[in-house]
Amino acid sequence: MTDKGWKFTGNERKYLDDVLKSGFGASESGTMNERLENLFADIHNKKFAITANSGTSTLHMALYSFGVGPGDEVLIPSLTVGMCGFAVWQSGATPIFVDVLPDTFLMDPKDLKKKISKNSKAIMPVHMYGNVCDMESIMEIANENNLYVVEDSAECFLGLDNKGRIAGTIGHVGSWSFEGSKHVTTSEGGIVLTDDEDIAIKMRQFGGVGFKNITAQSGKVRISRDNFQDPNWERHNIFAYNYRMPELCAAVGLAQCEHLEKFVELRVKMGQQYMETILDSELFSPQKTQDGFKNTYWTFAAKFLGDEFSIEWQEFRKKYIEFGGDGIYAAHQLVYNEPCFKNYYDSGNTPVAEDLQKRLMLFTTNQKDESERMIQINALEKTLKFFK
Description:
Distance between the termini: 32 Å
Strand order of the largest sheet: 1-7-6-5-4-2-3
Oligomer: single chain
Structural class: alpha/beta
Order of helices and strands: HHEHEHEHEHEEEHHHHEEHEHHEH
Mean pLDDT: 95
Radius of gyration: 22 Å
Helix content: 25-40%
């Protein structure tokens, strides 16, 4: 039986015990949320980090901080997860769906530029599958049109562009998910980064139940006992949400992020081995990583070309599993094709994404060592040989 707890061999148990011993108060070294925020900000060389209970919440917080609301439009790729659209819907704005490039599977800057209107307020590029968007072009378009940018880096930890910039640190806000399948996890959770103090305060207050004494640097609200116990004390400046991350989750996240580079490199190694395996196969066109960029392979994504050889998507997947593979995931439905969106928003025109969504195969990269990686590689080699 596979050891599913291999990722939790650092300080996770110690930090969880510290939280319980503190009675969910702060230890001498601060709360776990504070420590996680400080570590994540330091890793990315950013001024402000704010934890939350999910990567969807962090996107909502970012859009709120930009002033996004009814009548506004937010440009997002159609080939992404539905939660990107949820954050726009929660803001009362309208998602405008942008097509993706056929080789990188990421937001197409040319289509983005065509779809900007007088109602555009923000852009949400998504670093899908661990691959980094063309942020140079996207930021140029954003600056020309006075638009905010929130980078969704949920699937891309420590990815790099050709200038050495970390994905999530280039736009006005970067957003990550700590959901269980990500490079590092808090079970459920998320975090945002920014250098803008005003944006940071707005995000923290919006996700922190609107407490007026929250600052860009801290989510603490019980700073003065005399104030907090005063019947005349006024607490809430704004209508807001409770998006705060529980201390137990933050404890796990802190321990995980202490080994972030290790977890990323394990994924990269697995992605590279998949790439080497399918490189000469006519059945696949793998996701392209631009020259000088670093893909951190939350999953290994490739366009399946089996229909050109009368091989069905499900047929290949079934055989791969028979040979011992973990399974092959499909891309999520395009956001506008999800049932909850169909009745509310126009589908837009994203033909490249329409074609890709049906063909993409996503291979797991969360193997702990070479022996587990070789199980997947051997299964893939046997499957390719079977259909040759």
